[in-house]
Amino acid sequence: xxxASKTQTAKQDGPTPHYKIGNPYEIFGIWYYPERDLNYxxxxxxxxxxxxxxxxxxxxxxxxxxxxxxxxxxxxxLPSVVRITNLENGRSIAVRVNDRGPFVAGRIIDLSEEGAxxxxxxxxxxxxxxxxxxxxxxxxxxxxxxxxxxPMLSELEQPELPKTQAAKVPESVLxxxxxxxxGGGSDALSAIExxxxxxxxxxxxxxxxxxxxxxxxxxxRNKSNAxxxxxxxxxxTKGEISSFDNGIDxxxxxxxxxxxxxxxxxxxxxxVINRGYQGSKIILE
Length: 285
Description:
alpha+beta; Alpha-Beta Plaits; 30% strand
């Protein structure tokens, strides 16, 4: 497969691509629960995988190509579309998710080598990121996949939309392959339009976002339960209970931190997991 990739269909030889959510599964003693979450919006640490896995089938039966932009996620449907923002440099791209992983504690998503290159962290190996599901695009890929078609993002046909008054857009810059830049003015582009403006993933560039690293041990409706858990992990490092309204309930989050580096956060996370809190994760604020 080359960068001018063609639509994969269920008729190809070898593994048969298919739409997949999947059942709960266990890897290295940790359980994962795939689900269709159209409101998915999380922060964490991204990593990447490359040539060593090239040519191998992905979790939904496609063929992995490290020279194409794609990603692996532990629970999102396959395929899905997410917007990944590198919070360290402000770069953001839409990415097609078609694989499972990364199965390393403290990592939220695994990009292909090309994806990591475009987002600017291939050499350093990891980056602080925000991952947001693009619901409209994901639902369109789901419909295509259930009909046996597995197009790249640039191959999706643009939907016919009613004419509307464009809302004011943020002052970010869209850089196209031909060097043209859009944004910061009256250009109002949907995510699909952004993707289809170029043969490769378009890059949105904004300013970097300063973040602090925390370990979220759990979130509880009952504050006394949160207080009990916090007491059990406070000997690892400092922590707190942070309460917020998610629109349905008041949730009380047990968090350890802030932590100065990803390496230190990995060590703290491992200690928390070893205490039995397997759902713990790294978050950024």
